[in-house]
Amino acid sequence: MNSYGGIPLWLSFIILLLLSLYLGLYFGLFGLLTRFVITETAIPLPMVAPLLWVSLEYLRAHLLTGFPWASLGYSQYKFLTLIQIADITSYLGISFLIVGINAVLFEIFLHLKGRPIRSSIPSAVSIVVVALMFSLSLIYGYDRLQTSYEQPGRGLNVAVLQGNIPQDLKWDRNFQRKTIDTYKRLTNEAGKNSAHLVIWPETAAPFFFQDRSGYQQELFDLARRDNIYLLFGSPSYTFAGDAPVRLFNSAYLISPYGENLSRYDKIHLVPFGEYVPLSKILFFIEKMVTGIGDFLPGNDYTLFQIPQGKFGVVICFEVIFPDLVRKFVQNGAEFMTTITNDAWFGRSAAPYQHFAMVVFRSIENRVYFARAANTGISGFINPKGEILGAGPIFEEVTVTLTISPSAVKTFYTLYGDLFAYVCITLTGLMLSIALWRKLNIKNNF
Q1: Which among 7, 9, 140, 178 would be 20 to 30 A from 273, CA to CA?
Q2: Is 266 tagged catalytic?
Q3: In the β-sheet with 309-315, what is the strand arrangement from edge to edge?
Q4: Catalytic annotation present for 316
Q5: All domains of the chain, ordered by start, with CATH?
Q6: What is the tens place of the pLDDT at every residue in 293-319?
Q7: Are 360 and 75 in contact (CB under 8 A)?
Q8: 40, 57, 107, 202: the active-site residue
Q9: The model's pTM
């Protein structure tokens, strides 16, 4: 926040503390409510804990614009057999299993230590149910991993480029020429590998592409010369009468024939990064912090179309929201792309966490994902969640892969967070029973 966001050091500490306190509330609430339910009712821990956990993770993913970063289920992104159920439950189903299994182990531990279990029959039933769900998930996962999602004869060569442009130089006018030349050189390499679609990262074009400038013509000429479709990120703007200019974080697709085919405007913006939520109340923040953008969200789940199929693009932060991604696939996207600039994270765990979450978006909708990141991680993920061709961070990288558009519509694609809604309903029922019993006992005294 201080190095790249232009936020004063003292204020960045305060923001970090407030965010940590806010996120910590969910863990505290989980412990409090779990204790409340198992104390006031006979419902066993292996039933209470996973339902509560999933309900709170869903709440965290949506409340105050949502922050579903590093949710528990994402920790299993390499356990491919287990996480195939995400095409039904999203990542929340894996969170459910992790908490359920740990609750079962805890119950068994208490029993072995000689501590009596209050409701032995319900506890035994809950242990069997969780074990059965875990076993069925593995069987389902094994079956899904044997299934082919490739469409014969519909291969598409896609190249993702990683220019490794330093964040502090990205918008420096003196460095603008070098940035463009870097991506032109990497694009030429991709063209030599017969790429049909070449993808640059978020805001890789450090200028307003819509302005009829020499830079715009260079990109048209590049696509024409290499006979490629070119997808890239660039800021955009519109005017609305007497209102101030409206800024958007956008992605453009241009054709080999020198045409600007379409533009997607980022829908889910980063709070306090791309805009200030509740700006009328928090008006002082924009005056204190120069690094916060003043972007507006887009409204349309735009699909791009090339001869090999339709696809959608999500920009940076958007890829961590399952429901947003599924709407592109539900509307007809046959593969997905994501463009990002993770240079903000530096050499931390965050670029790896961000990339791992894309694994679940592929499985949830059974589509290929192509990811282009300025400093990494760039690569591909297939419909089974297998990571293909991922490069290192903070290096120039060009990865080309043949992918296959998908015509599959999964349960999650069609019905969304139905699993989460069931968990929330059951959680509400449990809390109601516990509250009723507590009030009823209190009234009896």
Answers
A1: 178
A2: yes
A3: 304-306, 309-315, 335-340, 369-373, 379-381, 387-388
A4: yes
A5: 9-148+417-444 (no CATH), 156-407 (3.60.110.10)
A6: 578 889 999 999 999 999 999 999 899
A7: no
A8: 202
A9: 0.91
